[in-house]
Amino acid sequence: MLVLRSVKARLGGVLVLRDVDLAVEAGRTTVLVGRNGAGKTTTLRVIMGLVPLAAGRVAMAGTDLGALPSHARAAAGIGYAPEDRRLIPAFSVEDNLLLPALALRLPSAERRARLDQVYDLLPELKAMRGRAGGHLSGGQGKMVALGRALMVGTRLVLLDEPFQGLAPALALAYAEAIGRIRSRMPELALLITESSPHLLDRIVDRTVQIERGEIVRDTVPAA
Amino acid sequence: MLQALMPLLVDGLANAALIFFVAVGLSLVFSVLRILNVAHGSFYAIGAYASVSLSLWIVSAGLSPWLTLPALAVSAAIVAAILGPAVERGFLRWTYGRPESLQILVTFALFLIFEDLQKLVFGVQSLYQDAPVQLFGTSEIGGILYLNYQLVLIALAVLVVVALRLLMSYTRFGKLMVAVVADPEVSQALGIDTRRVYMAAFTLGVFLAAFGGALASPTVGVAPGTGPEAIVLAFAVAAIGGLGQIEGAALAALVVGVVRVLAIYFAPEFEAVVPYLVMLAVLLVRPYGLFGSVRVRRI
């Protein structure tokens, strides 16, 4: 569904993505593994339009994303949860979740339905819906960022290092949440970057390894 | 003493209200666009010129002088609708993410251009039309005569503080602005068209300044120098309140207004410098202003 072809990208003049080919399929969970600095985060940011494409092509369902500004990519159904959460501190958890719906002018019935679905998938968010985004722990913030990505990402959800810095119990809860998303949203494509992919063992459909800005291995585990 | 202070106080607060309009717009633009707009005072002056021109025309055309009241808001809206998008799209957007020195230079250049354009269009003589002040008349309280128009100015400033707060907390545009202030990049990734938010926020800032100028025009003559005076005072007020703070700008305008009155009463020769002395004192103790802080960007 999402295809990256010979993607190159620069950060501050330095070629960070040298040659990235990647295919993310609908209904599948793809994990992008690699060391720190290998280009995982930059790959997601290129998909989101936050880092400009230096060369190559990014397309979703046949539509070239290269020309679309970030907000239009969100409107096309891509949800993004950055590694550092980046919640709006002054907003409550619920307002953080609703922000994309507000931005995309979703009709209120649709807004309500998506919020209910998120609360259904991540019940811990419902319990803290009134708390300020600035007053959450790192792990709670990650959950909210995941929920917020699900509010936008009807076709594709990008999760950047979701387990980074999570306490073991929270990491487990997060992995279970991803499992629930996987089974309840069968058409959704998931692209997850991870430096310690073992937590995702049970739900991964495809593992792609990136090194120094290049894809070096692309494996589909035997069922 | 109160007998003598009260009229001064009303006068000072009415002035503070006008400066508040400029300062809060400056603050708003700074927090959303992250640009300190040196040309912001020019919108105050242009709003004043537009309003006085429209009022002069209304009176000379023999229309009802009551039309000069809506003309105050209408002229500000026209100025904002034209100059807001033009300046933001035409100039400021090229400076986003660039060094602050470049942003200051670009807006300073705009300020100089606007100053000359004003002289070109409106001439260098002072323009004056006080129909709105006349219409509101005066009231006598405790043997002292007050201009009702000045009381209206103070009430309008309070109203604008409340309106801006409601806008930020309860409307779509306000919430998108708060999100963009907190994190422009993630805002884009969540579907916010930040270009439109920048343009709209800037236009709102231009409107507030132009409205301040329009409201000022019936009380003073409009002449070259109006813009520079407004921007310098607005900078002081915005800095005292903390850049990006709506209530901070209001409180700072209040403080500056009252301090100026006290200066006029006790040491008139210091009237012009006290706003800056207050700014100096506040910034020495609280470098980010009364309401400001380094980490949390609020609006």
Automatic annotation (TrEMBL), chain A:
One of its GO terms (molecular function) is ATP hydrolysis activity. SUPFAM superfamilies: P-loop containing nucleoside triphosphate hydrolases (SSF52540). It comes from Propylenella binzhouense. Coiled coil: none annotated. Residues 2-222 form the ABC transporter domain. PROSITE patterns: ABC_TRANSPORTER_2. GO terms for biological process: L-amino acid transport. Belongs to the ABC transporter superfamily. Keywords: Amino-acid transport, ATP-binding, Nucleotide-binding, Transport. The keyword Secreted does not apply. Pfam families: ABC_tran. This is ATP-binding cassette domain-containing protein.
TrEMBL record, chain B:
It is a multi-pass membrane protein. The chain crosses the membrane at residues 12-36, 43-63, 69-92, 144-167, 197-216, 222-241, 248-267, 273-291. One of its GO terms (cellular component) is plasma membrane. Its main location: membrane. The keyword tRNA-binding does not apply. The keyword Membrane applies. InterPro entries: ABC_transp_permease, BCAA_transport_permease. It is found in: Cell membrane. Pfam families: BPD_transp_2. One of its GO terms (biological process) is amino acid transport. GO terms for molecular function: transmembrane transporter activity. It comes from the Bacteria. Keywords: Amino-acid transport, Cell membrane, Membrane, Transmembrane, Transmembrane helix, Transport. Belongs to the binding-protein-dependent transport system permease family. LivHM subfamily. This is Branched-chain amino acid ABC transporter permease.
